[in-house]
Amino acid sequence: MTICIKSLIKNMNIVVGCSIGCSYCYARNNCRRFHITDDFSVPEYMVRKLRIIDTPKPHVWLMTGISDFSDWKPEWNAEIFRRMKSNPQHAYIFLTKCPDKISFSTDDENVWMGVTV
Ligand code: SF4
């Protein structure tokens, strides 16, 4: 049996943009194509998407599909993680290419942090 990973993980895209600037970045191309933000290199917090977390059906959410967790501001983290805590039915994935820039920790067992290279 074949299972497509896209059917198991949903994108939250609650932050759009990334300052890292990889030449091969598909997210930057998509943001330009659909004009999601004015400048992809300046991450924007899409606060209106927070309500998506409240969906009762459990999902695995990729929180950083078009951003890098190292760019997230502490005040964004505080609000998003508070909302995640009140929705323990989900699992949340965060990825970064710059773990050395991150000063953050959580005891939430449904939060998965990863490094991409
Ligand atoms: S880290 Fe990811 S989102 Fe950021 S520029 Fe590179 S590929 Fe794009």
Describe the overall structure:
The chain is of the alpha/beta class. It has one domain. The chain is 18% helix and 18% strand. The chain contains two helices and six strands. It has helices at residues 26-34, 74-85; strands at residues 9-11, 15-16, 44-45, 60-62, 91-96, 111-115. The protein has a four-stranded parallel sheet, with no helix packed on it. Strand 4 (60-62), helix 2 (74-85) and strand 5 (91-96) form a beta-alpha-beta unit. The protein is globular and about 35 Å long. Bound molecules: iron/sulfur cluster (SF4). The site of iron/sulfur cluster (SF4) has 9 residues, from helix 1.
Bound molecules: iron/sulfur cluster
Kindly report how far apart the N and C termini lie: 29 Å
The unreliable regions are none
Structural domains: how many: 1
What general form does the structure show?
globular
Placed side by side, the strands forming the largest sheet appear as 1-4-5-6
Using only CA atoms, what is the Rg? 14 Å
What percent of residues adopt helix (DSSP H or I)?
Answer: 10-25%
Q: What is the beta-strand fraction? A: 15-25%
**Mean pLDDT score:** 94
Q: What is the total tally of β strands?
A: 6
Describe the biggest sheet?
Answer: 4 strands, parallel
